[in-house]
Amino acid sequence: MNTEYVKTFLTNLQKRIVAGLEQIDGKPFVHDAWDRPEGGGGLSCVIEEGNVLERGGVNFSYVHGKGLPASATAARPELAGRSFEATGVSLVLHPRNPYAPTVHMNVRFFEAKKEGAEPVWWFGGGMDMTPYYGFTEDAIHFHQTCKTALQPFGDEYYPRFKKWCDDYFYLKHRKEPRGIGGIFFDDLNQPDFTTCFSLMQSVGNHFLTAYLPILQRRLNTPYGEHERDFQAYRRGRYVEFNLVWDRGTLFGLQTGGRTESILMSLPPIVKWRYNWTPQAGSAEAALYTEFLTGKDWVDS
């Protein structure tokens, strides 16, 4: 019963976000429904070569099965042997303009059941932003909106989830953050279902408010091949995180999820360079010294 309530919200959230993005881009998303042979399915809404978005996807999924994959039971062995249901909306947007940041948002619900035992459930999610050229006003707006989404539930949530985001979206092998962060949470099941569901809803409902004003500010900024080249280089960090560290990617692949939808998050054009560093004093160097620092953008 809990899962049905959540699924209804998530499918409506997907529709609202796609509609908001289509209004800015002017090109419709392709709607691609899929079924999972082991149980469940989803709807991938994808745009490629749009007027604003070089690539983006807003995906809904609902999967269920008789047993959990290793990625889920490794940290929680008590879930072994339980059937499960997992549903969520996950999006990644890669604008073409290098001055417009990449953004990620995910909200999800998980429930595991076993005969004769109480169901185990939790919510997770968050949103984070990855600029290639940093703007203080954009970072402040994004984080302030994240804080506003959590404020009704208590003052402690934003600083806690902000730190969690900084810690999670961190490339350990590079010793650098993926972007300027945002908020991230997982295993949320206290104080009760209603409160946790409301918090997850608030995060999802605030996404367009957090991101669209930034996209609108930057989408017409003039740029050249130099900026596109740096954008492609920094996109490589995004790929590295998603393929090496992201638990959601691993969970999706291990549960037999749809590979095309899972890897939709990867940008279309990426570059790697050997031992490259930006020129001192450049706008590219400022990204590292002023924005990829895990700083507090708003008062906690």
Describe this structure in words.
- With about 300 residues, the chain is an alpha+beta fold.
- It has one domain (about 5-290): Coproporphyrinogen III oxidase, aerobic (oxygen-dependent coproporphyrinogen oxidase), CATH 3.40.1500.10.
- Helix content is about 40%, strand content about 25%.
- The chain has ten helices and nine strands.
- The protein has helices at about 1-25, 70-75, 135-150, 155-170, 195-205, 205-220, 225-245, 245-255, 260, 285-290; strands at about 30-35, 40-50, 55-65, 85-95, 100-115, 120-130, 170, 175, 180-190.
- The protein has a seven-stranded antiparallel beta sheet with strand order 1-2-3-4-5-6-9. Strands 7-8 form a two-stranded antiparallel ribbon.
- Strand 1 (about 30-35) and strand 2 (about 40-50) form a beta hairpin.
- Helix 1 runs parallel beside helix 6 and helix 3 packs antiparallel against helix 6.
- The longest helix is centred in the first third of the chain and has 24 residues, at about 1-25.
- The two termini are about 35 Å apart.
